[in-house]
């Protein structure tokens, strides 16, 4: 099994390039089921994307990934045998697999998709996805670990209000309502930039979708165009490296980025005392040795993202005083804490709140990655720790961070994969 070995305490400087967004690519790849042919650009080469590609292939699509320009062409023709099953072996490794449910119901009027099950950060049910599909007229049964859904007469537009804000359920509902007969109004939706990107893509293939605050209005369409689309950049990857730069950066530049995508995060970092310069499409981070404590809570966009909670916690270990962070999205997302404590962090957990006393000196240790964002937080901790840190189980990292070692090495980090 591969490991990362990092020798910390090196001051980093240079430029970090940001890849295409994993979380925007996944629903857009699922949406390509609706088309005859789609070319997507700026697709990150990470394992979750390959899992989705394998899922599309197993359904019967032809997928041609071009490494050179990070594009993928997904196509179907009458000679491909199509299959309406999304198998357990693929959905279990990546929950976003369940996003094929909405498009498959539109395309085939029936779908059998494995229930994704729980994961390290919480139970993560799909009840809201299923509620939305049922409201659109789908008949749904759960049998042998699979969701069996059908819509013999096609889906029909409906008014749907989500009891809780969910990114995935909003996406599945949009994807299903896209081809439903008539109008759909979704209320209390997630409004993450990745959802806006999905809507931009769907409108380009012929959709009629508008938004207002947390409402989404969808006029069902039947005609679908074949197009080419460039996926947005990864705001969580950007946020991760901006936090890394705040920890160990002398001067790190992020060019050709959209600073507005991480407006909340930049505000938090400035409050903590990080020196930041932002221009139209560039962010410069100068770091700061005198960081201030902060109280934070994770929340749906535009709030502070749960996907950056573990990373900002590492920065909190270097701030003066007692910082606090409440995790409001997932019930079990503090798995990185015990590993950070093994490196010397002073953190206590009470219910959904972590209390971080700083500044603490971190020292290298052998640690274990538990999920995607927890793993990257260990990389950040290793960058400021004394001596050598060995990070095990880095397959979690490879699910979502493209060329992590290469990007950090480019800024002179001492990091290698063995
Ligand atoms: C997406 C992101 C993930 C991010 C999360 C929250 C992708 C591929 N993944 O995950 O990186 O951490 O948003 O920003 O985009 N819930 C229910 N019932 C449901 C669905 C969700 O109770 O049917 C709950 C979840 O357990 C969780 C909360 O709603 O407590 C938010 O989850 P959700 O927004 O759905 O996360 P994902 O779409 O799975």
């Amino acid at each position: 099994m591969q490991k990362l070995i990092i020798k910390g305490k090196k001051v980093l400087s240079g430029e970090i390039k940001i890849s295409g967004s994993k979380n925007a690519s996944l629903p857009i790849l699922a949406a390509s089921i609706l088309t005859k042919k789609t070319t997507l650009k700026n697709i990150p080469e990470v394992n979750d994307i390959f899992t989705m590609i394998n899922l599309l292939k197993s359904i019967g699509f032809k997928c041609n990934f071009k490494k050179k320009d990070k594009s993928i062409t997904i196509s179907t023709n009458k000679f491909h045998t199509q299959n309406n099953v999304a198998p357990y072996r693929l959905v279990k490794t990546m929950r976003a697999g369940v996003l094929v449910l909405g498009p498959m119901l539109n395309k085939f009027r029936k779908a059998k998709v494995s229930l994704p099950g729980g994961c390290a950060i919480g139970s993560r049910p799909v009840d809201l996805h299923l509620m939305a599909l049922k409201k659109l007229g789908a008949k749904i049964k759960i049998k042998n670990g699979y969701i069996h859904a059908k819509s013999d007469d096609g889906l029909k537009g409906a008014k749907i209000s989500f009891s809780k804000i969910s990114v995935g359920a909003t996406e599945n509902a949009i994807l299903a309502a896209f081809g439903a007969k008539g109008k759909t109004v979704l209320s209390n939706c997630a409004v993450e930039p990745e959802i806006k990107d999905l809507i931009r893509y769907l409108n380009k293939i012929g959709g009629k979708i508008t938004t207002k605050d947390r409402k989404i209005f969808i006029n069902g369409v039947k005609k679908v165009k074949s197009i080419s689309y460039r996926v947005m950049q990864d705001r969580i990857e950007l946020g991760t490296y901006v936090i890394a730069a705040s920890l160990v950066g002398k001067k790190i530049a992020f060019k050709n980025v959209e600073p507005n995508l991480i407006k909340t995060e930049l505000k938090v970092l400035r409050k903590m005392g990080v020196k930041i310069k932002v221009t139209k499409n560039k962010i410069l981070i100068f770091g700061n040795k005198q960081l201030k404590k902060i109280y934070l809570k994770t929340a749906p966009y535009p709030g502070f993202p749960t996907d950056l909670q573990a990373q900002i916690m590492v920065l909190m270990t270097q701030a003066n005083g007692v910082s606090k962070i409440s995790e409001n999205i997932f019930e079990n997302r503090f798995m990185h804490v015990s590993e950070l404590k093994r490196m010397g962090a002073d953190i206590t957990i009470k219910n959904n709140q972590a209390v971080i006393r700083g500044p603490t000196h971190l020292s290298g240790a052998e640690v274990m990655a538990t999920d995607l964002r927890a793993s990257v937080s260990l990389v950040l901790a290793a960058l400021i720790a004394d001596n050598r840190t060995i990070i095990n189980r880095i397959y979690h990292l490879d699910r979502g961070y493209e060329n992590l070692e290469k990007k950090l090495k480019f800024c002179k980090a001492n990091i290698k994969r063995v």
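The radius of gyration is 22 Å. DSSP finds 14 helices and 25 strands in the chain.
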